[in-house]
Amino acid sequence: MTKLNKFVAFVVFPLLFLSLVILTLFVGSALEVSHTHRKGYHVNPTGHLTVDIEFGTIKIETTEDQHHINITTRKKWKSRGIQQAKSGKQIDALLKDFEITTESDDSDVQIEGRFTQGREQWREELKRLTIEVQVTIPRQYNVTLKTVSRGDIHVGNIDGTVRAEALDGNLYLGEIQGDVLGKTGTHGAITLKGCQGDVDLTAARGDIQAEMTTQPQYPWTLYTSGSGRIDAMLSPDIAVDVDAQTQGIISSDFPIQWQDDIGSSRLKGTVNGGGPLLKLRSAAGEIHVKRK
Predict the structure, then answer these.
(1) How far apart are CA 244 and CA 266, in angstroms?
(2) Residue 11 domain-assigned?
(3) pLDDT at position 257 over 80
(4) Tally of domains in the chain
(5) pLDDT band at 263 (very low <50, low <70, confident <90, very high)
(6) pLDDT digits over 129-159, tens only?
(7) Nearest to 162 by CA among 151, 170, 149, 153
(8) 7 part of a folded domain
(9) Is 206 left (phi over 0), alpha (psi -120 to 50) or beta?
(10) Domain for residue 10, yes or no?
């Protein structure tokens, strides 16, 4: 073996192998910085929770305890590999800059979340940032919820009124006894499973999937623009008046009178003798009335 071959075999190859191992470890490793805070309040039943955050997800859960609200906020920045160029101090500054404040009186609680230096200050880091506000409330409570950027809203098992607005995310709403008013921004979808009150939901070009599991006492309106699709799933014994209209396809598992109005597709009539109005509107997407 020549000196050159020995040099390559015993020096160059080991160095290349070591460099590859280091690079693999560097790229494969994850850097994560997180801040978690918890707070609780004593409140009177049938109060009102307001959550208005500039960034992140809102999750509302309920408890049989009628006098307490518990708030957990989580802020996390996570990256991998060469994205770890940011220092821990810089990341910590980002998490601290998103300030979450809470106020409470005997019955109402308000939560706000804002970037004190503005979102544009952290534009490059936002795709690696997650923020979650989780609130446990009494079942008999009303909520008004809004998130502006990169966040969904989850609400379930509430005996009060729900108002929810996700401008850059989806709405997940389930088993709500009061009225439901909600909307999403561009492409945000809406899922509703069960509601006893008045329903008014609007998705800006996103899909809507709604399940009517028990006989409604109030009208439901589901609206989406663009090519958003609506799937309304009804239990077999549900009795409603249906009025569905779109430039797209309409179908129904129930026998409902079909109308064709000046080039637009429309399905209008009664299910099981009729009842509260189920109004379905899409600009050009499909509408399907399904038997659950």
Answers:
(1) 6
(2) no
(3) no
(4) 1
(5) very low
(6) 999 999 999 999 999 999 999 999 999 999 9
(7) 153
(8) no
(9) beta
(10) no
How many degrees, rounded to 5, is the angle at CA 132 between CA 182 and CA 43? 75
32-48 pLDDT, tens digit each: 888 999 999 999 888 99
pLDDT digits (tens, 9 = 90+) for 200-227: 999 998 999 999 999 999 999 999 988 9
Smallest CA-to-CA distance from 61 within 178, 152, 157, 126 is with 157
Is residue 1 a part of any domain in this protein?
no
Tokens standing for 33? 């910085």
- CB neighbour burial string for 53-80, b if at least 16 within 10 angstroms, e if fewer: bbbbbbbbebeeeeeebebebbbbbebe
Residue 243 lies in domain = 31-291
Beta bridge partners of 133: 58, 73
Pair 134, 71: CB distance under 8 Å: yes
- CA 66: distance to chain centroid? 26
Chain centre distance of CA 115? 20
Count of other CB atoms within 10 angstroms of residue 47: 23
pLDDT given at position 24: 42
